[in-house]
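User: Structure please.
Assistant: Input sequence and predicted structure:
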Amino acid sequence: METQHWHLDRKINLSVLIQLLTLAGLIVGTWVNLQRQLDRVAYDVKLLLNNQERFTGRLEALQEKTLSQEYRLRAVEASKSSPSF
C-alpha cells in the first residue's frame, strides 16, 4: 500500500514576489493616505471647536445684553405707568 503525502512546494517565482511587493506597497500607500486624511479631519474638527467656542462666547454676550435691555425696558415701563406728582 502506497501512502501519498502532501508537501508544499517552497519555490517562489518572480511573479509571486512582484505581486507580494505590489500588495505591500498598496497597503503602505493606503495607510499613509488614511493618516493624511485623519490629520485633515483633526485639523477641521479643531477649527470647528474653536469657532464654536467663539460663537458660544458671542451668544453669551448677546444674552447678557438682552437681559440688560429687558431690565431697562421694564424700568422705563414702570416709571411711565406710575403717576408722577
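The two ends are 130 Å apart (CA to CA).
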